[in-house]
Amino acid sequence: MNIQVFLHATRPHTYPLAMTGVLVANALAFAKLGMFDGKQWVIFALTTHVAVGLQILANLANDYGDGVKGTDAHRTDRQTAQGNLVQNELKTVIIVWAGFIFACGVGLLWLSFANWLEFFVFLAFGILSILGAMAYTMGKRPYGYFAKGEIAVFVFFGLLNVLGSLYLQTQDLQVADMIVAVAIGLLCVCVLMINNMRDIDDDVKTDKRTLAVVLGKEKISQLYWLLLLTAFWLLLVFAVLQHNVYLLSMVLLIYPIGKHLAVVYQYRDGKISPHQLAVQLKTIVGLAFASGLLLSIGICLNYK
């Protein structure tokens, strides 16, 4: 197996998205606990590793699943579809990687919890996350082909990523934490939506019924606007509730967000091609990570 081709299939540009929720969660934990000790730094590192590992698993499974089904035959950047990765080899790698992430997750939970009930509850969440990452396009009835992808991303990469990472550190959750988790979840959903908006014409031909296909270009674009603006409105609500002036730094994102939404508006009206919209995938990943970074810095600076 060509290592460079394999690394390309893991889609490194999506790694920051997986890190965003963990970063924000640990900033929230820092605000509650104060300075981290050695154990808490290890938990932070392991949680980041598992989150990025799940993102890689989802990307590899997506490359394999769509490649096997012929959905990505038109995509020159999809390694399985283009024959750059042998299907059986990649399937083996996916299974081994899933086992590795599971083992890392078990170690993380063992370190975090003394309570067996919490251990097994989070173990169940971990197993569901691994299965969810694989089942998006793999298997006989992949949920990504039935307009369920956005829900899964919101739950696994938003709520579970943020709230789970926070609970591992503090064993405590508050309403304000949920607000942040929902905001991060919506930003993650926006990444998937841009991806599916780009592929809408080809997905129609291959009978892949994503939410973008079901709603159509106009409605999915409007929903995208709503979700992205709601995410930043929730972060504003969080800043007000926390009386945190440092979070005003997020106004720096107003211009790039506006510019990004303008491109989506052009796509809705047919003024730009799917290829031109594809550039916005890295843009929304960058906006999500920048939001998480500024949020985390603001939370830590506000610590008293």
Which helices and strands occur, and which strands form pairs?
Blueprint: H1 3-9, H2 15-33, H3 38-69, H4 87-112, H5 116-135, H6 149-170, H7 175-198, H8 200-205, H9 211-241, H10 254-268, H11 274-301
Helix pairs in contact: 2-3, 2-6, 2-7, 2-11, 3-4, 3-5, 3-6, 4-5, 5-6, 6-7, 7-9, 7-11, 9-10, 10-11
Please tell me what the overall shape is. Answer: globular
Kindly report how far apart the N and C termini lie: 52 Å
Helix content, binned percent? over 70%
How many beta strands in the DSSP annotation? 0
Q: Mean pLDDT, as a whole number? A: 90
Query: How many domains?
Result: 1
Low-pLDDT stretches = none
* Major β-sheet profile: none
The SSE order reads: HHHHHHHHHHH
EC number: 2.5.1.74
Organism: Moraxella macacae 0408225
Subcellular location: Cell membrane; Membrane
Transmembrane segments: 15-35, 41-61, 94-113, 119-139, 151-169, 175-195, 223-241, 247-267, 279-299
Describe the structure in your own words.
The chain has 304 residues and is mainly α. The chain has one domain (3-302). The protein is built from eleven helices and no strands. Helix 2 runs parallel beside helix 6 (149-170) and helix 6 (149-170) runs antiparallel to helix 7. The protein is globular and about 55 Å long. The N and C termini lie far apart (52 Å). The mean pLDDT is 90. Keywords: Cell membrane, Membrane, Menaquinone biosynthesis, Transferase, Transmembrane, Transmembrane helix. Pathway: Quinol/quinone metabolism; menaquinone biosynthesis; menaquinol from 1,4-dihydroxy-2-naphthoate: step 1/2. Conversion of 1,4-dihydroxy-2-naphthoate (DHNA) to demethylmenaquinone (DMK). One of its GO terms (cellular component) is plasma membrane. It is found in: Cell membrane; Membrane.
